[in-house]
Write a structure and sequence with these properties.
Elements lengths: L9 H8 L5 H11 L2 H14 L19 H33 L2 H8 L8 E6 L5 E4 L5 E4 L3 E6 L7 E12 L8 E5 L2 E5 L3 E6 L5 E8 L2 E4 L5 E4 L3 E6 L4 E6 L14 E7 H12 L3 E3 L8 E6 L4 H11 L2 E6 L2 E6 L1
Parallel strand pairs: 5-6, 15-18
Antiparallel strand pairs: 1-4, 2-3, 3-5, 4-5, 5-8, 6-7, 7-10, 8-9, 9-12, 10-11, 12-13, 14-16, 17-18
Helix pairs in contact: 2-4
């Protein structure tokens, strides 16, 4: 059995983390925290004990209905108050020796963003393109055309927060101690580990969220929580700050775009044009207003623009003429 003679006793480490240690013990433990073994121990300890759940996402850990919203609110307020007080005491006990020794805090911060102030990267996906990439925690994001995403180079200790304008599909790596948060205009989504599609284009009046797996809490501008279960779709009205949740037969149809499949269900001509403009980066001109009286339902795996336009002409007596990099719409 190998014993690390440089590692302080477990009781000494606990005393330091609980703010009960002497100055000599704090210095000893802080020195050990500067080693790879100590850094790993501290990172795991702080994740386990100090960041059980980020504020506003506690409801995701509850697997049953709360009989009283008032009682639940009071309980969670007390939990948050105690957690914040315990966090302040324990972080002070840990970080003060680090600051005295110098440099060790920055070694830890390079592993876990303790202060949550990492630089953000911003990526814009232009019309006609779609991309897929992976975050540092293993979570995946499929980003649709004409969308913008901001994400930190390094996720913080308490959460994994990104910012979205446009449409994306997320497959989030589960982590009960560090919720994944998607910030959007006037609202945000908080998850622990799940798969969902969100369409939040700035110029649109609504935000659409479709949940395939897991649990979601969507927080509105008024700080009201809305809970979404698998197989449900949430429609958020930006103007009224209200949410409507509906049950849908197939939530996965909302994210078929990531597999290069175009689909419409009872979509107006205006919705079709807007989607195809983003998909192909081609302008549409409607020459006859009567064309707006028709709606479209179809799915196509052939994403050649000319073929899609022919499919649309089979649904309604509307002609789509693609010429000089422009599509003109008229009634037959």
């Amino acid at each position: 059995m190998n014993v690390n003679l440089n590692r302080p006793a477990e009781e000494t480490i606990d005393n330091v983390l609980n703010g009960l240690a002497s100055q000599e013990e704090a210095a000893q433990v802080a020195t050990w925290f500067s080693t790879p073994e100590g850094q790993l121990y501290l990172s795991q300890s702080m994740e386990k004990d100090l960041a059980r759940l980020s504020k506003g996402c506690e409801d995701l850990a509850v697997d049953h209905r709360i009989p009283s919203e008032v009682m639940y609110g009071r309980i969670m307020k007390r939990i948050r108050t105690k957690r914040i007080r315990r966090l302040c005491v324990r972080v002070a006990a840990v970080l003060l020796p680090f600051l005295l020794i110098g440099g060790i805090f920055f070694q830890l911060n390079s592993r876990v963003n303790l202060l949550g102030g990492a630089d953000y990267e911003e990526v814009y996906i232009p019309k006609g393109e779609r991309v897929q990439f992976m975050f540092q925690d293993g979570s995946k994001a499929y980003i649709n055309a004409d969308s913008k995403i901001r994400y930190p180079k390094q996720f913080g200790l308490l959460d994994r927060k990104i910012f979205l304008e446009g449409e994306a599909y997320f497959v989030v790596t589960p982590n009960a101690n560090r919720p994944f948060v998607v910030e959007m205009e006037k609202t945000s989504i908080c998850v622990l580990g799940t798969s969902f599609n969100v369409a939040a284009y700035p110029e649109e009046a609504y935000i659409y969220v479709s949940l395939d797996e897991g649990k979601i809490t969507m927080v509105s501008a008024a700080k009201k929580n809305n809970y979404l279960n698998p197989g449900e779709k949430l429609i958020y009205d930006k103007h009224t700050d209200s949410c409507t949740i509906i049950k849908v037969a197939d939530t996965k149809s909302a994210s078929l775009w990531k597999n290069d499949v175009i689909t419409f269900k009872n979509a107006s001509l205006q919705e079709v044009i807007k989607a195809l403009n983003r998909w192909y980066d081609v302008p549409f001109v409607v020459d006859d207003p009567r064309a707006h009286t028709y709606s479209y339902t179809f799915t196509s795996e052939n994403t050649l623009l000319e073929k899609v336009l022919l499919d649309l002409e089979k649904i309604a007596p509307v002609r789509f003429t693609y010429k000089d990099d422009t599509v003109r719409v008229s009634v037959k």
